[in-house]
Amino acid sequence: MRLLIAILLPWLAFFTIGRPISGIVCLILQLTLIGWLPGAIWAAYAVSQYHTDQKIQRALGR
What we know:
Blueprint: H1 2-8, H2 10-16, H3 20-30, H4 36-60
Helix pairs in contact: 1-2, 1-4, 2-3, 2-4, 3-4
Organism: Stenotrophomonas pictorum JCM 9942
Keywords: Membrane, Transmembrane, Transmembrane helix
Family: Belongs to the UPF0057 (PMP3) family.
């Protein structure tokens, strides 16, 4: 679900993973039509890293 949000509303994806400063920067980037694609790619990558970090935390038992 977060990946879909990252593609459609990249700035919102950052807020869902607890990175509000990045969300604001992404929103500014998204306001330009050219910046939408890099913002979506950046958000999808951040969501992917968030899921990886969550898996590592569960594996370590934290």
